[in-house]
Amino acid sequence: MLKSVASFIFPAQPQTGRVKTASWLSLAALIIVLDQLSKLWISSHFFYGESLPVIHFFNLVLAHNTGAAFSFLNDAGGWQRWLFSAIALVAAVWIVRLLRQHAHETLFCLALALVLGGALGNLIDRVAYGYVVDFIDIYYEDWHFPAFNVADSAISVGAALLILDSFRKK
S-S: 154 plus which of 48, 94, 118, 133, CB 3.0-4.6 Å? Predict the structure, then answer.
């Protein structure tokens, strides 16, 4: 059983495919590091809810999100922590498999690496704290976009690139 799970996640591939896959996984790791360092810095320099205006449409703010994207299910009572953690783990396994299978498809793998890094960056917060640290506040007059972080940005850019890649001829 364990061998079949391992062969699903890590199918055989030629040596050059391994090098490409390692590059994509390195990019995902870089996203995780940047995400965690930025969250650590914000958490150590701000009080919860504190906001610092940077420019006329951008604040730094320390916010905690127990839900999903844009605070979806933020007030669901706690069960969502484990649901979103499980989804992130399953998605990470699936993405690693796709990266290994399609290592030479640059745009597709770039998108997957961004999504993987973002998903794992937020998963670390969810498991460690029970919430995701958000700190980027974009606004216009009294309207504020939900606060987000580096991981959310990577996931969003990765998703946009996946959509763009879907329109390309294969």
Answer: 118
